[in-house]
């Protein structure tokens, strides 16, 4: 005989049990009072004992339910706290916390687990993208959601922030990953070639059209079309692109019949496209068609936690036995504003690798503008540092970030490197809003 299993939600069971107790208590008190009145007895003493009994049973049931629910959670917390990847505190500190603030402890471990899982997810699905910072992981979790759909994505971000890398990541995690990926850099197309580049042409359509040629739209059919630097597309071409986006059809230059296509579009720009719309240099209707799922990539200045991880990544990419980065060089890399973002960093690391003949990259191996970055902080574009205190704070913040990275994200290690107590370090981490978890290696 097959056994049937019924799964009832705890949200139903627990209210039913406690509701049942409340009803039972009311019915029994009513009956008791009725009985006492019929027999001319004082209901005070029996009511007191009834309350004690029902209270005791409810208390025991609550304990049992809590034990059943919390036992696996506590086991999970205990086991995960043993993992090196999660524990950034000494065991004694963990014990102290456990007895005083259990909810806080649970929340902290759950947050750490989620953090590590997102890092693992990022590395699994985007192996070429280094994204340890919270900001970038947030972007990638958005990208993960949109990748397997056919939704049009508009990637915004300064030059060198990795827009092309993200577009490739979307394609590789999409349902069209076995179909063509056609990329077109809109800055690279001369004005007179736009039409034949996109739509292709028939033989004899114009002088020099000696044979029929398919355009990018035709090549991208059933696949993905990445329009890089879309802000540089001429207005005339924008109108034609809009038709393909809306109706999925076009004609070859010199052609008479329409060709239907099924394309997933990804566009990217480093320009302020809303301002372009306001100025009339970008079509508003096309902007709305493209802006279905905008993804904004933060500049490297906004995710300083990624700088040294990216540096290590590029060092490992260049040579089999990569050099280390000296503390002073790390400090300079952290202090630079990186207007050219990841691309500029990549070039600086490549140059340093060539220049460096020792086992550690020193300040002198870095480009001139990076070497000057600590002094340049007086005119740092984002923060407009005015006073010496602000400059010192920025340097202190950078030193903490560097120590956290070296200490693998463990505050105890970082505090030792900095020669301060973990308590002081925790205070400063809070002050500068640094996320120590993002320095942990999964
Ligand atoms: N998160 C990252 N991890 C690893 N490499 C990165 C990352 N972001 C960017 N890069 C590298 O930096 C370089 C520039 O990236 P990419 O071309 O994608 O930037 P972009 O935003 O498209 O630049 P542009 O606007 O100038 O076209 C590439 O070599 C890319 O591999």
Automatic annotation (TrEMBL):
Domain Sigma-54 factor interaction: 129-354
GO biological process, one term: regulation of DNA-templated transcription
Keyword field: ATP-binding, DNA-binding, Membrane, Nucleotide-binding, Transcription, Transcription regulation, Transmembrane, Transmembrane helix
Name of the protein in question: Sigma-54 interaction domain-containing protein
SMART domains for the chain: AAA
Species of provenance: Desulfonema magnum
Membrane spanning stretches: 7-28, 48-70
InterPro entries assigned to the protein according to its UniProt record, in alphabetical order: AAA+_ATPase, AAA_lid_NorR, Homeodomain-like_sf, HTH_Fis, P-loop_NTPase, Sigma_54_int, Sigma_54_int_dom_ATP-bd_1, Sigma_54_int_dom_ATP-bd_2
Pfam families named in the record: AAA_lid_14, HTH_8, Sigma54_activat
Gene Ontology terms, MF aspect: ATP binding; sequence-specific DNA binding
PANTHER family xrefs: TRANSCRIPTIONAL REGULATORY PROTEIN (PTHR32071)
């Amino acid at each position: 005989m097959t056994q049937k299993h019924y799964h009832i939600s705890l949200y139903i069971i627990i209210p039913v049990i406690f509701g049942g107790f409340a009803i039972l208590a009311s019915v029994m008190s009513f009956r008791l009072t009725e009985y006492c009145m019929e027999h001319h007895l004082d209901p005070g003493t029996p009511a007191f004992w009834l309350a004690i009994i029902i209270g005791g049973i409810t208390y025991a049931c609550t304990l049992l339910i809590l034990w059943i629910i919390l036992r696996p959670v506590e086991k999970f917390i205990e086991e995960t706290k043993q993992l090196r990847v999660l524990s950034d505190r000494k065991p004694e500190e963990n014990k102290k916390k456990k007895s005083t603030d259990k909810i806080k402890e649970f929340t902290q471990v759950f947050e750490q687990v989620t953090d590590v899982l997102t890092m693992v997810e990022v590395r699994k699905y985007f192996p070429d993208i280094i994204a340890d910072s919270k900001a970038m992981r947030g972007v990638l979790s958005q990208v993960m959601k949109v990748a397997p759909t056919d939704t049009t994505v508009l990637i915004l971000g300064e030059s060198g922030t990795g827009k092309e890398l993200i577009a490739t990541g979307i394609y590789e995690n999409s349902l069209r990953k076995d179909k063509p990926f056609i990329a077109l850099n809109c800055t690279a197309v001369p004005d007179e070639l736009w039409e034949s580049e996109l739509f292709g042409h028939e033989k004899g359509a114009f002088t020099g059209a000696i044979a029929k040629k398919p355009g990018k739209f035709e090549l991208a059919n059933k696949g993905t079309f990445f329009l890089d630097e879309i802000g540089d597309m001429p207005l005339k071409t924008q109108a034609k692109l809009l038709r393909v986006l809306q109706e999925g059809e076009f004609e070859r230059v010199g052609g008479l019949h329409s060709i239907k296509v099924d394309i997933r579009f990804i566009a990217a720009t480093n320009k302020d496209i809303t301002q372009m719309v306001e100025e009339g240099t970008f079509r508003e209707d096309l902007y709305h068609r493209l802006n279905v799922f905008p993804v904004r990539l933060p500049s490297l200045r906004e995710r300083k936690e990624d700088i040294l991880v990216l540096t290590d990544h590029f060092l490992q990419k260049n040579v089999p036995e990569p050099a280390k980065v000296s503390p002073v060089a790390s400090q300079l890399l952290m202090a630079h504003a990186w207007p050219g973002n990841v691309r500029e960093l990549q070039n600086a690391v490549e140059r340093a690798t060539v220049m460096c003949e020792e086992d550690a990259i020193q300040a002198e191996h870095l480009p001139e503008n990076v070497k000057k970055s600590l002094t340049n902080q007086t005119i740092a574009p984002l923060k407009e540092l005015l006073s010496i205190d602000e400059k010192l704070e920025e340097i202190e913040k950078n030193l903490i970030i560097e120590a956290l990275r070296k200490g693998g994200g463990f505050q105890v290690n970082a505090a030792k490197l900095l020669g301060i107590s973990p308590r002081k370090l925790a205070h400063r981490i809070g002050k500068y809003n640094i996320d120590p978890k993002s320095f942990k290696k999964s």
